[in-house]
Write a structure and sequence with these properties.
Elements lengths: L4 H39 L9 H14 L4 H7 L1 H8 L5 H25 L3 H9 L4 H12 L1 H23 L5 H11 L4 H30 L2
Amino acid sequence: MKADWSTFWPKVVDATGETVYMVLITLALSTVLGLAVGLALYATRKGGVLPNRLVHAVLGTFINVIRPVPFIIAIVALAPVTRAVVGTMIGTDAAVFPMTIVATFGIARIVESNLLSVEPGVIEAARSMGAGPLRILLTVLVPEALGPLVLGLTFMLVALIDFSAVAGTVGGGGVGNLAMTYGYLRFDTSVMVVTVLVLIALVQSAQFLGDRVSRRILRR
């Protein structure tokens, strides 16, 4: 059965809103958590401001285990945990949980790699002025690496749009669910084309916004 576009457009708008909701909530949560994990990973490395081999090894192992897992497998594997935490495995709120878990560790590695690019002399200068480890991390390293960090978060934002589409295929709602339910399962090419165009528009908007913000920061 082909979609009646005179009444189908509201479904497209609602699905797009669900996708934006999933992506923005996940980005906010995973940015806070990923920044914390990334800072801890950087600080505890050998030669860091708070070196701790055990903590660094544990964090690194978690990241290396979770990051390579394809998201479609991660969302299924985390389903029991999602049910325990959220109360359901279906819907946008249920999709946010596994998306946040996966994105957190991706952002943590982005944070670590960008902090490593900061000149060591900046850290030494802060130490010579009496700055403690926490102050160095939050008021020296993060501002110094802010431009590249924004670019890294832009990359993750685009990845989250992809994650949301995958989540939609297993009941997560959003554009992915619309494409699966009304496009793929009903063999409606027009629905598939529209959903792909919506996803492309979201990706282009995210990339444009991230590039603009990072350029403005780097010019300071």
